[in-house]
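Sequence decides. Our protein:
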Amino acid sequence: MFFAVLAIFFIGQTVFYEETLFYFWGNYIVLLLYAAYLYFLGRIYQAFRFGSLRISELILSWTVCLAVTNTLQYLVLSLLEMKLLPVVGFVAVLAAQIILVIPLTFSIDKLYYYLNPVQKALIIHGKDKKSLEYRAAIEKQHKRFEISSVVSQDEPQEKMISMIQGSDSIFLLDVGDGCRGQLLEHCFRLNKRVYILPTFSDVLLNAAEITWISDTPMFLPKSPEPDLGTRVVKRCMDVLIALIAIASLSWLMLITWIATTLYDRHNAIYKQVRMTRGGKTFTLYKFRSMRPDAEDDGIPRLTSRDDKRITPFGRLIRKTRIDELPQLFNVLGGSMSIVGPRPERPEIAEQYEKIYPNFPLRTKVKAGLTGFAQIHGRYNTAPDEKLFLDLMYIERFSIWQDLKLMLQTLKVIFKSSSTEGIANDSITALK
């Protein structure tokens, strides 16, 4: 697939942009540059993850990857020619590549599962009933796993070891530390693949580096506070990207502002108090997607799946994330960053904190427009899972990770499931 889309691009360049061709080595360099873009962006958008992603998501990954790759190459060739080249050729090349990618994705996916048959899965769970909720997520991966047995950690060790021997993949869900350690050792000896539901301490150790005290190796968890140089670079990057985005998307924001105002003759900008670094509050700006009387009852609530408060135009701008664009001014003002945990409302955060005391740890860094939990989770992701995802971001923080998450946001915009609301009879994501 990789070399096929590469070949289509070169053929397209030859047909539509003959003036950009070199005599000999230059063509190889341009093609190598395109291949480097394609591979790099393919890894970021998970375009090569056959066996892990659904076919629809793989096709989306390839579509976004090719669109960004072709755009970058279009800019490079335009710079070499010192003029903007006609866009028609690049659109035709992209269309041809996508037409090729769709049947190839189905074929490779079918071949993958032919070569990798369904694995017999064993679930070992702890006493917390919530661990069994993850069984549904495993069952959805029916092309990869067939759940053969579900057993409690309270069963005799001999029985569990016997069941491990007869399974291909083992899932340890909320298993106690002592028992988990013993089971992990047995799985390691038997060369079994193990999937472990992480605990809070696992998340803190996720990005720990190995250090040495004399001749003793020890884990050293990363500090959640980046050094001064990194903070300066991140802030400069925030300001630069926000200014470029505002300048390039000002027409779209103007159209949205006019359309929202004309719909019901009310203010198009919605203001709401949110929390950022250190638990400090600030005023967040959004394009209003709900009726003006959405919270006249005085009860703060998240958006539900079939929320009647959302206007028809509001539903469109929520799905496409256009309603979030005014937050670029929050980024310019310094109350938010481009990448970071999404800012929560103080009233809702207070409810979450009563059940999950570690929830305030999300505010160890500045709130963001996009983030780890937004890329890998959804709007209605449970608060404890959102906390884990945000802590993974904080523990792994780097400028490189921020750049990757920004690029991955382009793909999330096209995933309708990422904006799915909470249950209709709820006001928070606790259900």
